[in-house]
Design brief:
Layout (H helix, E strand, L loop, with lengths): L3 E5 L1 E3 L6 E3 L2 H9 L3 E5 L5 H9 L3 E4 L23 H17 L3 E4 L1 H9 L4 E2 L2 H4 L15 E6 L4 H6 L3 E5 L5 E2 L6 E6 L5 E6 L5 E4 L10 H19 L4
Parallel strand pairs: 1-4, 1-5, 5-6, 6-13
Antiparallel strand pairs: 2-3, 7-10, 8-9, 8-11, 11-12, 12-13
Helix pairs in contact: 2-3
Length: 241
C-alpha cells in the first residue's frame, strides 16, 4: 500500500478570496516516488492537526516566505517577508505535533527553517545584508541559479545521494543561523551557509535549503523523495499512531 504524504499548503488573501495552494511539483515529486500526496490547508486547531497526522505516514514541508522573526526573538529586518499569520500558526502547530509523533519529515527551504525555529534555533534574516557570503543564494532574474553543496560523509543525506558534493538550485535569501535543539548541519556551501540539517535520534528527518522538487530530473535530487517516501511507508507498515 502506498504511503500517504501530507503536504502543507501556502496561504494568501491578496486581491481575491482567501485561498490555500501549493505548487504542483511538490505533489508530482511525491507521486513519482510512489507516495500519495494529501494537501493540508491552514488549520489552527491542535486537535484537528493531530487527527490529520494520525491518518498520514509522512510530512512534506514546503517552501514559502519567511518565518516571523518574533518566533526567535528578533526584530523584523526590512527584507523579511513574513508568511501570513494564520499560516505561521498552522505550520508551527503542524511541525510541533509531527515531531512529537515521530513522523517522517522532508523539509524544504522555509520548511527547514520553520523546523529550526520550532526547535529553538534562529535564522539569518537576509544573507546579502549580513555580508557573510560571496555566493549568490537568490537571483530573482533566474530561479534556476545553482551552486555546489558539500555533504558530510556521516549523514543521512550522504547515505541517500552517495556523494560528497552536489549541485543544487538556490532561491533563498534567509538561512539557518543558530541550530535548534537536536539539529545537526550536514551540508554547507563554500561560504559556510548551512544547506542541510538532520535531527539526532529521529526516525527520518531531512531539511534542505534548496528545492529538490524542481530538480527531480537529476537522480540525486529525486533520491531524496524516494528515501522519504520509503521511510514513510515503513512508518505505515509499523502502524499509524
Amino acid at each position: 500500500m502506498k504511503p500517504i504524504i501530507g503536504i502543507n499548503c501556502d496561504y494568501g488573501e491578496a486581491g481575491k478570496q482567501p485561498y490555500s495552494f501549493t505548487y504542483r511539483n511538490y505533489s508530482e515529486a511525491v507521486i513519482s516516488a510512489c507516495g500519495i500526496p494529501l494537501l493540508l490547508p491552514v488549520m489552527k486547531d491542535k486537535n484537528d492537526v493531530a487527527c490529520f497526522l494520525k491518518r498520514i505516514d509522512g510530512i512534506l514541508l514546503t517552501g514559502g516566505n519567511d518565518v516571523p522573526p518574533q518566533r526567535y526573538k528578533e526584530e523584523r529586518h526590512q527584507k523579511t517577508v513574513c508568511v501570513h499569520p494564520d499560516k505561521d500558526i498552522s505550520d508551527t502547530i503542524l511541525v510541533s505535533a509531527a515531531l512529537q509523533m515521530g513522523k517522517p519529515i522532508l523539509a524544504i527551504c522555509y520548511g527547514a527553517q520553520i523546523v529550526n525555529v520550532v526547535l529553538g534555533g534562529s535564522l539569518i534574516q537576509d544573507i546579502p545584508s549580513e555580508g557573510i557570503s560571496s555566493l549568490v543564494h537568490k537571483d530573482l532574474r533566474n530561479e534556476q541559479y545553482t551552486h555546489w553543496v558539500t555533504v558530510g560523509k556521516d549523514s543521512l543525506l550522504h547515505e541517500i545521494i552517495g556523494d560528497v558534493c552536489i549541485e543544487t538550485n538556490s532561491v533563498h535569501h534567509q538561512a539557518i543561523h543558530e541550530l535548534g535543539k537536536g539539529l545537526v548541519a550536514t551540508a554547507h556551501t563554500s561560504d559556510g551557509i548551512i544547506e542541510a540539517v538532520e535531527l539526532d535520534e529521529y526516525p527520518f528527518f531531512l531539511g534542505v535549503q534548496w528545492h529538490p522538487e524542481r530538480m527531480t530530473h537529476y537522480p540525486c535530487h529525486r533520491a531524496l523523495f524516494s528515501a522519504f517516501v520509503k521511510a514513510s511507508k515503513q512508518s505505515s507498515c509499523n502502524g499509524r499512531d
